[in-house]
C-alpha cells in the first residue's frame, strides 16, 4: 500500500527528469545542427602583441578564442578581425598599420599550418560548408579599419588576394575613407570621402563584403546609396535598446534590410545594455578618458599606458556584464522590426565582447539554448547563426562575378 501511494510521486519525478533532459537535448541539437558563424573577433591582436598559442585552450578571463574552444563551442566559421587602431595619418603610421596587418595575417597562417587538425583558411562562401564537414573551423579574414589601405586603392585587391573578405571602413576615429560614429572631433567628410566612395566601388567589383560597423550614420546612408551589393554590420547592436552611437537606429536597420544586408548583434556590454554610470568601473574609465583627452595620445607610450590602465580598472573593479538574455533581446527586436532574415551574431570577442554567461566561444551553445527557450525554430536558429550572413556573402560574390 505504501509503495503504491508513492508511485505517482516517483512517476512525476521521472517525468520531470525526462522533460528536463529532452529540453537540454533539444537545445544541444539546435546548436549542433546550425552552421555557426561568428563574423567578428579581434583574436589576431593577441598574436601580434605577444606570443599567443591558438592550439592551446586558455582561460576565458585571459582570452576568448582559441582552436580547442572553437571546437568545443561547435563553431563552424569565424572571422578573425585584423584590427589596427586609428593614428595620425602620416606616412610612418600608414606603413606601421600596413606591416601590422600583414603580421596578423602571417601569424594566423602559421597557426593554421601548425594545427591543421583544428581549422583551415577559408576564402569563399562555400568553404565553411566543406571545412565544417571535416569537423574543423573555417577561419576567414576581415580587416577592421581601412587605415592600412592608406591612400592606395590597389591595396584593396592586394588584401583581397591575401584572403581578406570584408573591410570595416573605419574604427573609432575618422580616416581617409569614412567618418566614424565615435570620433570626438565630429565629422570630417560628411559621410564617405571621395576616396571612400571609390573604395566601396572597388569592393563591389572584387566581391569583398562592405562592413558598416563603426562608420557614422551619414556614411552608412552613403554606402546604402552607392553599394550594388548587400552589406553587413559585422558587430553592431540596436540603438533603441542601448543608445550608443556604435549601434544602429531603427531606420538604419530597415534600410540595411531593404539592401538585403544583415546586422550581426555584437555581444559587447556597452552595446547591449546602457553602462551603469554609478559603478566604479564606469567612473574610473571616465577619469581615464579625461586624463587622455578623449583618447588622443601624444605617443605610443601614452597609448600603451592607457590600455594598461584600462585593463587594471577591469581587474580591480570588474564590470557587471549583460546576460545572454539581454543580448537575445536585440535579436528579438530586429526580428520584430524587419524579419528573421536580417540578423546574426558578431561577438567582438578579444575586442571587448563577452557576457556574464557567455564569456568565450565555448559558451556559444548558451545563445542557442536561449533562442530555443524563446520559441525560435531550427530553421530560424540556422538563419541567425550563419544562414543570413552566408546569403549576403554569396550575393556579394555573385554580383562581382556578374560584372567580371
Please give a handful of descriptors for the protein shown.
single chain, 404 residues, alpha/beta, TIM Barrel, 2 domains, six-stranded parallel β-sheet, three-stranded parallel β-sheet, 15 helices, 10% strand, globular, disordered N terminus
Number of beta strands: 9
Number of helical segments?
A: 15
Q: Helical residue percent?
A: 40-55%
Query: Measured on Cα atoms, how large is the radius of gyration?
Result: 22 Å
Given the C-alpha coordinates, what overall shape results? globular
Explain what the structure shows.
This protein is α/β, with parallel strands linked by helices. It folds into two domains: 36-274 and 321-403, Alpha-Beta Barrel (TIM Barrel); 277-319. The chain contains 15 helices and nine strands. It has helices spanning 2-33, 44-49, 67-72, 91-114, 127-133, 154-161, 194-206, 217-226, 250-258, 269-272, 280-291, 300-316, 324-338, 365-373, 378-403, and strands at 37-41, 77-83, 119-121, 137-144, 164-168, 209-211, 232-233, 262-265, 343-345. The strands form two sheets. Strands 1, 2, 3, 4, 5 and 6 form a six-stranded parallel sheet that branches. Strands 7-8-9 form a three-stranded parallel sheet. Strand 3 (119-121), helix 5 and strand 4 (137-144) form a beta-alpha-beta unit. The radius of gyration is 22 Å and the shape is globular. The protein starts with a helix and ends with a helix.
